[in-house]
Amino acid sequence: MTEQTIAIYCFIDDFFLSIGRKDDTHCRLSDAELLTTALVAARFFYGNLHSACAYMREHHGVQMIDKSGFTRRLHGLREQLMALFLALGQSLRQLNTSSRYQIDSFPVAVCDNIRIARCRLLRGEGYRGMCVSKRRYFYGFRVQLIATEGGLPVAFYIHAGSFADVTALKAMPLDLPEGSCLYADAGYTCYEVEDLLAECDGVELRACRKSNSTRADKPHMAFLKNYYRKRIETTFSGITGLFPKKIHAVTAEGFILKLILFIFAYTLNQVIE
């Protein structure tokens, strides 16, 4: 745990030094220490910031600030947090010599269906989605995730639960290297998107075909699609395994921020190990 904490801090601090970011001289807690604490909370304490702050203070001598100030600064560093993940994702894409990627989504419920009418975090039917694999509805967000062949996340996109996978794919910036193959299930079937990706980005979208598809696959291609797309389910299990029984948040922005921290913490853990 100590070694991973130090590795996370070094990664964040080196990134801030490379972009020329400097802390305010009056700040008792540096930005690198604050983001390290937030990621440690997501990795080891199920997102509990209070426990992570106590650990960083007792075991690493970090001078902590009050909870409200910590939360405000963490929200203010959201862009820097995303820039960190983008830089890490770009490095992982460069190291992925197989050029094979997987895309899929997993739901994150904010509350149970019976409590939708009393939910204060979200409002509207746009957040009600259907989880086909579990044959149940949920109310919350859906996370679109792109991972390498080995299951390392390189990009993600969080949207309302009612959006279909293929709709989210159209809005999601892929930024994959030319010549890449992106494996997906039948929910991402869209011939127009496949043609545009192949023509404009040089990326081949290999979505599993439905029984009535006009572009039916040959047996060997159907086998490859089913084989390569299933590894991402293990990644989903690893990310959701970091979740507490209920993700506590006061605002929708805070809930999304915690989702970002869980995804980032899982990715760093896989890279460090």
What does this structure look like?
- By secondary structure, the chain is an alpha/beta fold.
- The chain folds into 2 domains: 1-76 and 245-273, no CATH class; 96-240, no CATH class.
- It is built from 10 helices and 6 strands.
- It has helices at 2-18, 31-44, 49-60, 67-76, 78-95, 165-171, 191-201, 219-229, 232-240, 252-272, and strands at 100-111, 128-131, 136-148, 153-160, 181-184, 204-207.
- Strands 1, 2, 3, 4, 5 and 6 form a 6-stranded mixed beta sheet that branches.
- Strand 3 and strand 4 (153-160) form a beta hairpin.
- The longest helix has 21 residues, at 252-272.
- The radius of gyration is 20 Å and the shape is globular.
- 31% of the residues are buried.
List the helices and strands and how they pair.
Elements: H1 2-18, H2 31-44, H3 49-60, H4 67-76, H5 78-95, E1 100-111, E2 128-131, E3 136-148, E4 153-160, H6 165-171, E5 181-184, H7 191-201, E6 204-207, H8 219-229, H9 232-240, H10 252-272
Parallel strand pairs: 1-5, 5-6
Antiparallel strand pairs: 1-3, 2-3, 3-4
Helix pairs in contact: 1-2, 2-3, 2-10, 5-10
In short:
With 273 residues, the protein is an alpha/beta fold.
Supply the key terms.
Tnp_DDE_dom; 10 helices; 273 residues; 48% helix; IS982 family transposase; alpha/beta; 6-stranded mixed sheet
Indicate how many domains the architecture comprises.
2
Distance between the termini: 11 Å
Secondary-structure element pattern, one letter each: HHHHHEEEEHEHEHHH
Shape: globular
Secondary structural class: alpha/beta
Kindly provide the radius of gyration, computed on alpha-carbon positions and rounded to a whole number of angstroms.
20 Å
Counting DSSP H or I runs of 4 or more residues, the number of helices is 10
Unreliable stretches (pLDDT < 50, length at least 5) are: none
Q: Mean pLDDT across all residues, rounded?
A: 90
Helicity, as a percent range: 40-55%
- Sheet having the most strands: 6 strands, mixed
Number of strands: 6
InterPro entries: Tnp_DDE_dom (IPR025668)
Organism: Pontibacter toksunensis
Domain Transposase DDE: 102-215
Protein name: IS982 family transposase
